[in-house]
């Protein structure tokens, strides 16, 4: 009874993967198993065999694609590189068949995309991903374009017409289900990226594949799966796994009905029977030994349930048996899993079962897709707010990919923020984002990274509505009527002269092609913590010795483009605003530095418009070289207006006067209408160049030119050199007169309002810095002049006035009235400090090439960049405040409000060493241009591009938006300010008495730590030596009272504070020199320390402990499972055994690490060759900094080895360094030891001793890391001996890092 004989035909066939050599976990092949079975090794296919198998199974697959794919795969399989080996498992024959099956149906599919999908490359480590990409490109696979802007043109919408669903280019019939209740219906906002994933899924679904979606938390895996089934109209069965899922619970669900336990089919069995789609969620959370039972179901369509029933795929095998379930042909599985590893703490589902599914990586949507989706969730949320959120979260995700922060913030968080803002629009973005980030604010390092990232994108977290720092406004002098400009008064024949014009063809040389490089544009919003006129800034990727010489902006329909030219080497930068990349063309080959004489090129740019948008004319002022550069193709053409300009220039000798060099100028006011004017200073003709026609017109003049302003398309203002007299040149209006080729030149006489005593007319003839090319609107004109007036006008700036308006000019020939706002003193272009004159080579002459003056007509403003010497600093800064270092000041003259303000431009981090060259370009270290209708852009000599907003209306609008982003204050302590003078005087600073009870003290001058008092150390008072917080509510005295403290009391307080600070330094015993020395090592590894701390945060227990193992098939009966036993469950026993800790469970004991560093003489000796000792010290510094405050997770000590011995103690595990000073002492000890020790080598002894010592203590895990130079051969130590020592204790994970090598020592 119950004894069954074994049938003579019974055999066991076991299938397994080979054991992993050297691994502690996967060694299943022990001596017991070895004697039980006969072993057969299944050899991998050769490339030819595999090709035959694939072509036999899929005859229609393209032949060359299969050949390339298999050459690539076999190339990976044959290398010994561990990076390649980690990819091989993802490219099994099964996966290759799947790729080829799909290629035979969709021949247009990219193989590059297919291989990346099979390897799930999105979640591979960076090193492995770049290795895969490099190999794919080497084997001729075209890299797919990741940019969505191209795919936006493809129609990625989904349509259902007459029972056929179409997603992108793929169509499938819509299913007609029996159970419509089970078809999911979910709120889903379509976006391009998710539609691309669904199109991909549909291709695989039609091929009969089961799908696996892998992605981070909150990227929309469930939404995509549900939407996909909703579109296909397929009923869904849903199963969510967890850590305690058993094989039984996957297949059967017990429930109690009328007191009787009834077993119902699980969703899996229901889906198999009914042909529904089974969605398995959180598949990575269940143990892999449970989820592995899905393998037979997917592969062969068979599975044995725990109640004895069997699922089969082929209905012929049923023979009408009750215990056989036939799998419905419509049954499919859609499995959802997080990527393995921290912070999701799942099992590696993809590693165990990845190749039986068709895998799809689901990522957060790309910026355009995410923006489109968020605008559907929050239709009333302002678009700029959505753009800031998308950009900030994009940055945080890339930080998570780089390992700098742990959690990859997902779309789910952004969607929640947007939904909140949609419902509560008054709450303010800064408050709402804290809902997501408040938990992370407990970790200071994390908090700093988060706040910096949010500030970079202009999310004002931590800002107050009062943090407004706009520039101080000063009153403008009164507007004065200063005289008339009279054009062409009768009776004088010379007033009107005819100027002949001739037209000739131009010569075009080229094109030559240059590479247009792209750099990312790292835009930082400037209004994060404070509201200022500055909107944003970013840095150009230029080197230290380059010099910016021009900036100009061009307007397009969607964006403005900023062009910046530099002259050492000559190059052009172009960037769109808004945009995310900088285009760069290096033109050094066109303008090499000439050998003869010092040639300092100066290049200006003129962007073209309409049909030629994206093309730029570059003009070099000394050689008169004109180039047409097309940024879309990189082509450069040289344009020659006159043949004689091709002659080689006269040789410049060193004794030749610099002033003789002719300078050519370009007038670009109408460059966006594709015509330009060129002239030579002191020359007597104008060249008009029409780019589209390809003609040049030369106008000969009877005067020598000083400057030319195009005040209208057909009227130009000229000034004569030497006399500074002004002329108006009018072009004929009718085109038919153009052939006659005559332009008229009219002299302009400037008459003062009344020729009073001592005022002569000639004295005031000045050269304008800028003249507007268009007129002020009549409202702006009336506001500026103070009387209602409608007339043509031009606004002009020169060194004597803030601004001048000429009413009636240039259209009306009658006397034009001139209204001016006079300066107290003329602009001189002085820098502030006297050393600067030495630095910049004496006082500059009139050789400065950039006037830095622009007019903003819509805002009614004239803006110029001035050096500090031309700015009334005394009126801007209080007496005791030292003005900040700046690149210059923006002087904004506002003719509406009659105010002038000076905005400091932050100083560039560095300047080019060619200072005399800099001084020829501009008076200030900053150049400016107008941007759009009312904006400004400046570029300083350090390469920082800054955007500014100066118009009052725009500033008010932006300020309102900024305050809305901060939101209303809510429930935080409100400070009430009562303005009154305390009437108490300060005497002398002192620390004050210490109150033992720590009672709050307000006012007075007795106790230390009080608030709102005087003389003592505390907070919110006046005249005390330093701040001291005793933890009480602060009462603040007014700023006016603080400012009234006498200078000698302030000085005494300052001295006392300095003394206390020095005392504090003394307590730490770290001099300033020490601090800089330590910073040298610490700064070099700051980023690595951050990454290492992220890893330490995610550490979890590894140590196994003997525990009761439940759910066993043998052992003692488990009391808790008696009921399950009665119902027929088998796994109701428990037994003692070693249990692997749960993923993510905290450590009970700390892990143990010993770092063995080489401090031998060779480290010191060869430090000068490769910096090995310094790098070793940096590594030690990294370990000490990263492991600080992780003593509960890691106990570490550091020992050295050298010729003196193998156990030189540096850091003991129970006495780790607590501050920078102690860490620096250890680094100094290392350096000194390697300098003074005996030669010799104790690497082997040091390693062996460290391994044995480390293993003595109880710990969760053991690590020994040996840092050494590869100088082992010299002492006769072979690699094999070293390897034996490293593996002498299987409990200890030992690693060797060779930090310095002469020649190929380390490789050998």
From TrEMBL:
Output compositional bias ranges, type Gly residues: 1006-1023
Q: Which GO terms describe its biological process?
A: notochord development
**What GO molecular function annotation could you give as one example from this UniProt entry?**
ATP hydrolysis activity
Q: Which Gene Ontology cellular component terms are annotated?
A: cytoplasm
Please state every residue range assigned to the domain named VWFA.
Answer: 1152-1308
Kindly give the Gene3D superfamilies that the UniProt entry links to this protein.
P-loop containing nucleotide triphosphate hydrolases (3.40.50.300)
Read off the Pfam families from this record.
AAA_5 (PF07728)
Region (Disordered) location: 984-1023
| Organism superkingdom | Eukaryota
Q: Which SUPFAM superfamilies match?
A: P-loop containing nucleoside triphosphate hydrolases, vWA-like
Q: What is this protein called?
A: von Willebrand factor A domain containing 8
